[in-house]
Amino acid sequence: AQSVAQPEDQVNVAEGNPLTVKCTYSVSGNPYLFWYVQYPNRGLQFLLKYITGDNLVKGSYGFEAEFNKSQTSFHLKKPSALVSDSALYFCAVRDGNNAGNMLTFGGGTRLMVKP
Amino acid sequence: EAQVTQNPRYLITVTGKKLTVTCSQNMNHEYMSWYRQDPGLGLRQIYYSMNVEVTDKGDVPEGYKVSRKEKRNFPLILESPSPNQTSLYFCASSLSRTGVREQYFGPGTRLTVT
């Protein structure tokens, strides 16, 4: 079975400081990894993904994430946080070797960026 | 505008009264899926569809039905809703059936079953 853990329910950071939102995963095959963001009263929006290739992936709004196979992690990062980054962030994984198409989401991490 | 639409956005109903939540996408995506979002549990997949007339169970299919008669539509049916189905529901679609592409999400339907 595949699973995702987001160990922090909430991350607080001051505007202008770097931010990290943590994600670890478990799959038996090759991981397809995604980050989504949810703003209040909105659906989820895609930020970035790792399928194969370079371990450092860049996405929307200045976000990036690093795939670390040995630590089974895919932490989301941004060098300088904005107040407008405050939202709920979800990490998700799919087993690329699995013929089924289930995407498993973590429980979400609320990011609060304070001015 | 490329989008996934859901209706209704809000619904309050009573136990046992059948309901349908519609989902439509205008991107000609083959893959569509339904999720429910509950606090602390993230999103859990209910059902997904790889193509017309092809549907499969996700993590939490009990109490739900789906159909995919047309490519653009993927309604979620609750034949006999119960209070434990009170949740926020999202429909999503994707260009890829193999999971390599991102999913596009609808705005959500907040369902309350009393």
Question: Can you offer a commentary on this structure?
Answer:
The complex is a heterodimer of chains A (115) and B (114). By secondary structure, chain A is mostly beta strands. Chain A has no helices and twelve strands. In chain A, strands 2, 5, 6, 10, 11 and 12 form a six-stranded mixed β-sheet that branches. In chain A, strands 3-9-8-7 form a four-stranded antiparallel β-sheet, with no helix packed on it. In chain A, β10 (87-95) and β11 form a beta hairpin. The radius of gyration of chain A is 14 Å and the shape is globular. With 114 residues, chain B is an all-beta fold. In chain B, the strands form two sheets. In chain B, strands 2, 4, 5, 6, 9, 10 and 11 form a seven-stranded mixed β-sheet that branches. Chain B is globular and about 35 Å long. The N and C termini of chain B lie far apart (36 Å). Classes of the chains: A mainly beta (115), B mainly beta (114). The interface between A and B is medium-sized, with 27 and 28 residues.
**Number of helix segments of chain B?**
0
Quick one: overall form of chain B? Answer: globular
Distance between the termini of chain B: 36 Å
What is the CA-atom radius of gyration of chain B, in angstroms?
13 Å
As a percent range, the share of helical residues of chain A equals under 10%
Main sheet makeup of chain A: 6 strands, mixed
Count of DSSP strands of chain A: 12
What helical percentage do the residues of chain B reach?
under 10%
Mean pLDDT of chain B: 94
The low-pLDDT segments of chain A are none
What is the molecular shape of chain A?
A: globular
Uncertain spans of chain B: none
Helix and strand run of chain A: EEEEEEEEEEEE
Structural class of chain A: mainly beta
Oligomer: heterodimer
Total strands of chain B: the figure is: 11
| Structural class category of chain B | mainly beta
Quick check: average pLDDT of chain A?
Answer: 93
% residues in beta strands of chain A = over 45%
Count of discrete alpha- or pi-helical segments spanning 4 or more residues of chain A:
0
* Largest interface summary: A-B, 27 and 28 residues
